[in-house]
Specification:
Layout (H helix, E strand, L loop, with lengths): L4 E7 L3 H16 L5 E8 L6 H12 L2 E5 L5 H11 L4 E5 L3 E3 L3 H5 L8 E10 L5 H15 L4 E2 L6 E5 H7 L16 H11 L3 E12 L5 H21 L12 H4 L1 H28 L8 H26 L2 H11 L7 H26 L10
Parallel strand pairs: 1-2, 1-4, 2-3, 6-9
Antiparallel strand pairs: 4-8, 5-9, 6-8, 7-9
């Protein structure tokens, strides 16, 4: 018999994915040996049919508790859920994830070791008919396959924590790494604090929740901009992780700065050539004055070469993972990951700039510390 577990599912405007999520959870809970004794869904201020769907399941199945958040973001919603839980092990999955029947069973054996504070699992793909979703999924899977059992990073989409570890670490951050309606860095930051509290972290690739990956490029890039924003806060507070962790490597972390230098150089190059372009359009000379304009004209030709260098470097860092996905899938269509990674780096760079501008006003002052 497995130890009793409480499952916490945070969600906001998740009507499109909540039903299959809860159906899968109900099947696991129906297995008396699974250990899943309590399910808490935290509706974090939804404005769609999320609340109605959750109430339907609560009435039909029983054993589902519904809590209402105030739109404080995923970290706040998870904190509300686990602090209401009655069992010593807390399992978190996201509302756009469908747990496989053995997802929890694969995690539980790791918790036999009292020194283990948390163990995370992997992803499956709920949208295999979408190339974008498949590219996202296979990239994550490639990273997971390179992770060992003992890790220094855990996500929040499929993770089992000891309640005592959550209490000791202070729970998920609600202020610095967590944003309402935004994919933040609160899950990674919590895992750093749990490890700092003396607990081990483990990863179990055989535990999978199938995810509704984005099929809209616009939505995906918007999420990547948010990731770029929150990673500034995360890596300025935990500077020893800025060069990478067990999930992401230095080649990932260097991409937004490369993209930022490329974009900046492109703007300088465009500014240097703008008068000439205007002359071609207008058919007459354009007045030029000012020391700044002179400086831009002087460095303009060099800026073109700088653009090319940074663009080339950004292409080069896409190659290793692109080749890995190609070998992993055996499909030539996965070459599309290279341009996707290139474009994604630019959106993360935009988020990084926004984060750097915001950090002096709302960033944490020191490493360590609990949630606020």
């Amino acid at each position: 018999m497995n130890p009793p577990v409480t499952l916490v599912i945070p969600g906001r405007n998740c009507a499109g994915t909540l039903r299959p999520c809860l159906e899968a959870v109900a099947r696991i809970a129906a297995d008396g040996a699974s250990g899943l004794r309590e399910v808490i869904f935290v509706d974090d201020g939804s404005t769609d049919d999320t609340a109605r769907i959750a109430q339907e399941f609560a009435a039909r199945l029983g054993g589902l508790r519904i809590l209402t958040g105030i739109g404080g973001g995923p970290g706040a919603a998870r904190n509300l859920g686990w602090r209401e839980a009655v069992h010593p092990l807390i399992w978190f999955i996201d509302s756009d994830c469908v747990a496989e029947p053995d997802a929890l069973a694969r995690l539980l054996p790791h918790m036999v070791d009292a020194q283990v504070g948390g163990v995370g699992g992997s992803y499956g793909n709920m949208r295999p008919d979408s190339l974008l979703a498949c590219l996202i999924h296979e990239e994550i899977l490639a990273r997971h396959r390179s992770m060992a059992t003992e890790v220094n990073f855990l996500g929040g989409f499929n993770v089992l924590y000891r309640r005592v570890a959550l209490e000791r670490a202070g729970g998920f951050d609600e202020r610095y790494f967590n944003g309402p309606g935004s994919p933040g860095a609160e899950d990674a930051e919590l895992s750093f604090r749990v490890a700092a509290a003396g607990y081990g972290l483990r990863f179990e690739i055989a535990s999978r929740v199938r995810h509704f990956h984005p099929t809209s490029l616009r939505r995906y890039l918007r999420a990547q901009r948010h990731h770029g924003y929150w990673r500034v806060f995360l890596h300025l507070r935990y500077r020893d992780r800025a060069a990478g962790d067990d999930y992401s490597k230095w080649t990932d972390h260097v991409q937004p700065p490369l993209a930022l230098f490329m974009i900046s150089s492109t703007l300088v190059y465009a500014a240097a050539h703008l008068p000439r372009w205007l002359e071609l359009v207008a058919g007459s000379s354009v007045a030029r004055s000012g020391s700044l304009s002179d400086a831009i004209r002087l460095i303009g030709p060099a800026a073109g070469g700088v653009v090319a260098v940074f663009a080339l470097l950004l292409v080069v860092v896409q190659i290793p993972l692109t080749l890995r996905l190609l070998r992993q899938s055996g499909k030539w269509t996965y070459l599309a990951f290279a341009p996707l990674g290139f474009i994604r780096a630019m959106w993360r760079a935009v988020g990084m700039v926004q984060g750097m501008l915001a950090y002096p006003f709302r960033g944490p002052r020191r490493a360590g510390g609990g949630a606020r």
